[in-house]
Specification:
alpha/beta, 254 residues, Rossmann fold, 24% strand, single chain, 39% helix
Length: 254
């Protein structure tokens, strides 16, 4: 009796699998016979960074909407199109999918910049939150912390900041500033010399803050917080022209 039950169960499972594979095969055949009806491009602008628009994504697809409409969907290489879209440094990810009616949807998400690299002798660039070095855009200017100084030429030559130890340290420092509401509002620029020593330039006040290399972040930023919350209220904003955070246990003000 047990043998009959097991055989019957196996037969039912086999029948379900046959039907399932049949439906999948039928759907694939139907999809192949369907012509492209419409193309919808949706861009996720992370925090409203409009570096690219729908027309730019269409250009990256290297497709003419007038020509592609009416073409058979099964002749389109979706993976290849996704790869072309993601080749743009502003694009973080891209996905294409279609329905059985012939409608194609393109979803693209953009990288969010965390800093802008400024040069006097060449084009600027952006650093994205994942460390990717991006060009500037004529469509949109992002209000982020500025990077200047002798070191920035080297930064612009990198594809991703996380490819080097110095780059990873700088990314950690940028993330620390951007994650702190007060520091994000107060620190407007990082001047980086050829030895990767950093001077902070504030939004309010004339002082130059000598931070040194981007290490011991917690300790140095803690001293900077003490300076702004305990010293500045007593002496005023324009008392000092230079602040040094590099020495252990000390805040040196001139």
């Amino acid at each position: 009796m047990k043998i009959k039950i097991n055989i019957g169960r196996k037969l039912k499972i086999a029948a379900v699998l046959v039907v399932l594979f049949g439906l999948i095969a039928f759907a694939e055949r139907m999809k192949g016979d369907v012509a492209v009806r419409d193309i919808s491009i949706k861009i996720e602008n992370v925090k409203e960074n409009h570096f690219l628009d729908e027309a730019d994504i269409a250009d990256l697809m290297d497709l003419d909407n007038e020509n592609i409409k009416g073409a058979s969907i099964d002749k389109l290489d979706f993976k290849a199109i996704e790869k072309k879209i993601k080749s743009d440094p502003f694009v973080k990810d891209a996905e294409l999918y279609s329905d059985l009616k012939g409608n194609i949807t393109v979803k693209a998400s953009l990288r969010r910049p965390v800093a802008r690299i400024m040069r006097n002798d060449g084009p600027d660039g952006y650093i994205a939150e994942d460390g990717t070095v991006m060009p500037v855009s004529d469509k949109y200017t992002s209000r982020v912390i500025l990077l200047s100084g002798a070191k920035v030429r080297e930064l612009l030559r990198q594809d991703n900041m996380n490819d080097s130890d110095e780059g990873r340290q700088l990314m950690e420092m940028l993330n620390h500033i951007n994650d702190d509401d007060f520091l994000k509002a107060q620190i407007t620029e990082l001047d980086i010399d050829g030895k990767a020593r950093i001077t902070l330039l504030p939004q309010i006040g004339d002082e130059r803050i000598e931070f040194g290399t981007p290490d011991n972040l917690e300790t140095k930023f803690k001293k900077l917080t003490i300076f702004y919350k305990e010293i500045i209220p007593r002496v005023g904003w324009n008392k000092y022209s230079k602040i040094n955070l590099e020495f252990d246990g000390q805040i040196i003000a001139e």
